[in-house]
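STRUCTURE REQUEST FORM
Protein name: Core-binding (CB) domain-containing protein
Source organism: Sellimonas catena
Requested output: structure tokens
Priority: standard
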Amino acid sequence: MEGKRITQKSLKEYEIFLIQEEKSRATVEKYMRELQILSAFLGGAKVSKQKILEYRERLIQSYQPKTVNAKLSAVNSYLEFTGCQTCTVKLLKIQRQAFIDEERELSEQEYRRLLMAARNRPNLRHFKQF
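Status: completed
Returned output:
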């Protein structure tokens, strides 16, 4: 596929492949939409690793990392299907947040009010022990 262009024929074959792989309708539609966007980005240019890297950079400028990775998953899947594994790109590394934001923490006063409210609800036996 490197050095080739994305064609309507290859897109249709890929769509059939996704359906045969029993992907959900929503997944098929999403992947096909993402490939149409990639095709427009390429503007008829041949697929290359460099072009896919440029596309990833464009996505990074506009979307959150999770969204970028979802879009790149569709692109990488298509590239693998068409035999162009050399053009696939790595997904973004997303660091999980180990701790909750302090803004979302309950203050001691809020915690005590929550416990008091729970104790006063007769149907919540679990909190009677506090």
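Reviewer notes: The chain has two domains: 8-87, 101-130. The chain has a mean pLDDT of 88.
Form closed.
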